[in-house]
Amino acid sequence: MPDDVKKSIQKITIPVTEVEFRAMRSQGAGGQNVNKVETAVHLRFDIKASSLPEEIKESLLSMRDQRLSREGVIVIKAQRYRTREKNREDAFERLEMILGRVAVIPKKRKKTKPTFNSKVKRLDAKEKRSDVKSLRGRIEW
């Protein structure tokens, strides 16, 4: 992997005790099974009460996401599958994806100056464009 593509990722582990799962009935079509079996799962993860490092908590709380409540709780509803266990796994994977996005530490940008040749090319292009535009004007006889 080239150096300019590398990203620093922190390893995050979430204890299952910090995640709250609640089963509920799924929405949508599905016949009788949908009306009597609670297969959908609500995952709730309280960021402030978690054991995550402070910088990750801050970046999670500053995240603009509709799944994040004002109280600092991430709420994920999983109802993609027909079994509660698969929906529970799906919700946990989606939480891991959110945390994975936040755990990426952006690489510091190094300030660079444009080369002499790039400055000359830019000015030449501007001059040519200016000439083209000036030739579009009204011609006087």
Would you give an account of this structure?
- The chain has 4 helices and 5 strands.
- It has 141 residues and is of the alpha+beta class.
- The chain has helices at residues 32-36, 54-61, 84-103, 116-135; strands spanning 8-9, 19-24, 40-46, 73-78, 104-105.
- It has a single domain (3-105), classed as Double Stranded RNA Binding Domain.
Compact description:
It contains four helices and five strands.
Helix content: 25-40%
Order of strands in the sheet with most strands:
2-3-4
Give me the Rg, rounded. 27 Å
Annotated CATH topology: Double Stranded RNA Binding Domain
In whole angstroms, the N-to-C terminal distance is: 64 Å
Number of strands: 5
The CATH architecture can be named as 2-Layer Sandwich
Q: What does the largest sheet look like?
A: 3 strands, antiparallel
Sequence-ordered SSE layout with sheet pairings:
Blueprint: E1 8-9, E2 19-24, H1 32-36, E3 40-46, H2 54-61, E4 73-78, H3 84-103, E5 104-105, H4 116-135
Antiparallel strand pairs: 1-5, 2-3, 3-4
Give the tags.
141 residues, alpha+beta, Double Stranded RNA Binding Domain, three-stranded antiparallel β-sheet, two-stranded antiparallel sheet, 4 helices, 5 strands, disordered N terminus
